[in-house]
Write a structure and sequence with these properties.
The complex is a heterodimer of chains A (554) and B (111). Chain A has 554 residues and is mainly alpha-helical. Helix content of chain A is 74%, strand content 0%. The relative contact order of chain A is 0.18. In chain B, α2 packs antiparallel against α4. Chain B has 111 residues and is mostly helical. Classes of the chains: A mainly alpha (554), B mainly alpha (111). Chains A and B meet through α7, α11, α12, α14 and α22 of A and α1, α2, α3 and α4 of B.
Chain lengths: 554, 111
């Protein structure tokens, strides 16, 4: 059961598997690292160049938060894919399929199913109602100070947890791949993120994301095709080969190697599907395009990229059973079936070495590093927007602030987030942080999503209802994770968990909806009447786009 | 463009039968597509949770590939097709109706 969070964790881009030293001593360090380092430096040079170019275009808050809403649906679709496919989408899913077979496909479907729903229900409305952050939408017709503050805090919490996990994962992974010291890796990630975001804002962040998504896609798909080519491009041949050498034989192709508890399976699916629709850095991407039509296109393209990428990751996992699982050079002490060098999350990289040599390994390592930085940049920008736009400009200053002042605060906020990320990343190096990804998705599904959904779809939602719903979701998700095994037992050292499941969303999300519903129903204040009445004008804007923030030409 | 201009336009549009018709049709379509995806997805998840043996069967005698692979990948392809249908219909039908509607109010809203 404890592995469930580990895989979730792993699949979001993090691996803090022990064994870094073993890898370094075993791997042929210089020859393996040189191509990776060169390719990574090329990536850094190009993206710094883009940031320099973008900085000249980032002279207003609008440019900083949305890139002037001038990205096309295809560009934004790639960038959304980039935000969603973190390093270990590739590493986590492939290692899950490698170790547990079919259950990896269940994960893929959980990640994937969110996107069509996102497209049908949310994409156009989000674009028509919001401007910079999703708190624009939750506070659209409700008491702005209260709801915006709540949404900004929930959003920052998600960003913060996600960021820490990325930082710690990045440090460990880069230590393995490049032979850099852990703290140097964390500082490099934090500094690059701060440079991209504070100078280049959304324009630089989006281009970094697009480049990285393209590289990750190319790397993933070519490795998948390479492993298929060893099976005459027949899935059945490949599957038969894998089953023949898999420790559990034909069970590879059946569910239940890993997902054994029905409640956990369902709660996981709820958390991943609805949590995706509450991730602040993803929601922010909807405002980078000109109108609802482009927003719709973005999600359409993102759905295609994300699906293909995850399927490629699964094929890599299957290929690794054949190509890595039978090759003693990838096992500690050369014992096949023992511990994989660097941990299971390394199998995609091992397969790259097995099938494509040092050059492909170097390419994939560089892409992994780039991926982590791009995801961290997206998170940093979302967090900075929460601080400068939501909290500073709208709540504290009530909108009485110039674009230049707000821009200055957002740049400062980015630096703070970068520094905090570096410090926490180094501080938490040796802690088991697996619960943080579950928590980030749990809060996104239980605090952000219900309030956002009800604000857009239910005229009865009042300010009080939104506050009760959001806070119930936040508190219950945090409590359930703290009382679950991954924190209560593993981190705090108690004997038995108080909350029996690892995934809170199945319970905390309905609780949030119920709290929002009841608090709204029993809200007879004068403010509540205004809140409800304002829904109908909001609905016209959501449906038609009249009054929606437009694109600026730059 | 002023917020107050928009508000008065919103109130007119709210009573426009063309708007009401558009909203009704589009909401129904969006809901239908969402329900199709969620039913497909949760039937799959519930089978994984409660009847995993159904997915473990090989697709043919002696094959390594299981039914589950076909069902899982098939679902993904079905979702892709649904998103394609949605985009097609949104572009061809709803955007046209929406543009017509906005056109009627364009002068007033200074769009």
């Amino acid at each position: 059961m404890k592995h469930i969070i580990f895989f979730l964790f792993a699949s979001m881009g993090l691996c803090t598997e022990a064994g870094a030293a073993d890898l370094l001593s075993t791997m042929d360090k210089i020859s393996a690292n040189l191509p990776a380092i060169i390719m990574f430096l090329i990536f850094v040079l190009i993206t710094i160049g883009i940031t320099y170019w973008a900085a000249n275009r980032t002279k207003s808050t609008n440019a900083f938060y949305t890139g002037g809403s001038s990205f096309s649906g295809l560009q934004n679709g790639l960038a959304i894919g980039g935000d969603y496919m973190s390093a270990a989408g590739l590493l986590g899913i492939s290692s899950m399929v490698y170790a547990k077979g079919f259950d990896g496909l269940v994960y893929i479907l959980c990640y994937f199913a969110a996107w069509p729903v996102f497209l049908f229900m949310m994409s156009e409305r989000l674009r028509n109602l919001g401007r910079y952050t999703f708190a624009d939408i939750t506070s659209f017709r409700l008491n702005e100070s209260k709801i915006r503050l709540m949404s900004a805090i929930c959003s920052l919490t998600v960003v913060c947890f996600y960021l820490i996990v990325q930082m710690v994962g990045a440090g460990g992974l880069i230590e393995l791949l490049f032979g850099l010291d852990y703290w140097i890796a964390v500082v490099v990630v934090g500094v690059l993120m701060t440079v991209y975001v504070s100078f280049g804002g959304m324009i630089a962040t989006t281009w970094v994301q697009i480049i990285k998504a393209a590289l990750l896609g190319i790397g993933g798909v070519s490795l998948a095709l390479l492993s298929l080519s060893h099976a005459d491009f027949s899935f059945e041949v490949m599957a038969a080969k894998a089953v023949a050498v898999y420790s559990n034989g034909i069970k590879l192709m059946a569910p239940g190697n890993f997902l054994t508890d029905p409640v956990t399976v369902i709660s996981l699916s709820v958390g991943l599907v609805f949590g995706t629709m509450g991730l602040p850095h993803i929601l922010m991407r909807f405002f980078t395009v000109a109108n609802s039509k482009e927003a719709r296109k973005s999600v359409f393209y993102a759905t295609i990229f994300i699906g293909l990428f995850f399927l490629a990751s699964a094929l890599i996992g299957l290929g690794a059973i054949i190509g890595v699982g039978t090759d003693s050079q990838f096992f500690e002490g050369g014992r096949i079936g023992g511990k994989i060098i660097g941990g299971n999350n390394m199998i995609a990289l091992h397969l790259a070495k097995a099938l494509g040599g040092h050059l492909l390994l170097g390419f994939l390592s560089a892409v992994t590093f780039a991926t982590i930085i791009a995801v961290v940049a997206g998170l940093g920008l979302a967090g900075a927007a929460n601080i400068s736009h939501d909290i500073y400009a709208r709540v504290i200053k009530k909108g009485q602030v110039t674009s230049a002042q707000e821009l200055l605060v957002s740049r400062f906020a980015t630096i703070v987030i970068g520094v905090v990320g570096i410090i926490l990343g180094i501080m938490f190096k040796d802690l088991n942080l697996t619960f943080l990804v579950g928590l980030a998705f749990g809060i996104a599904a239980s605090a952000n999503f219900p309030v956002l959904f009800l604000a857009m779809f239910w005229s009865g939602l009042t300010t009080r209802g939104a506050l009760f719903g959001g806070l119930t979701g936040l508190v219950s998700a945090v409590l359930m994770v703290v009382l679950s095994k991954s924190v209560w037992v593993i981190v705090l050292g108690n004997a038995h968990p108080i909350f029996p499941y690892e995934q809170p969303a199945l319970f905390s999300m309905p609780l949030a909806f119920i709290a929002a519903y009841l608090a709204s129903k029993f809200d007879h204040s004068a403010e509540a009447e205004i809140d409800r009445a304002a829904f109908f004008d909001q609905e016209v804007r959501a449906q038609t786009g009249i009054g929606a923030a437009g694109a600026s030409v730059h | 463009m002023h917020e107050s201009d928009n508000v008065s336009i919103y109130q007119k549009i709210r009573r426009d039968p063309k708007y009401l018709e558009l909203v009704k049709r589009r909401n129904f379509f969006q809901l239908l597509m969402t329900i199709l995806v969620l039913i497909g997805f949760y039937v799959f998840i519930f089978i994984v949770a409660f009847q995993p043996a159904w997915l473990a069967k090989p697709v043919s005698q002696g094959a390594a590939t299981s039914m589950g692979i076909y069902v899982g990948v098939g679902l993904m392809i079905a979702f892709w097709i649904l998103t394609g249908i949605y985009i097609y219909r949104a572009n061809r039908v709803f955007d046209v109706l929406n543009d017509e509607l906005i056109h009627n109010y364009r002068k007033e809203s200074h769009l």
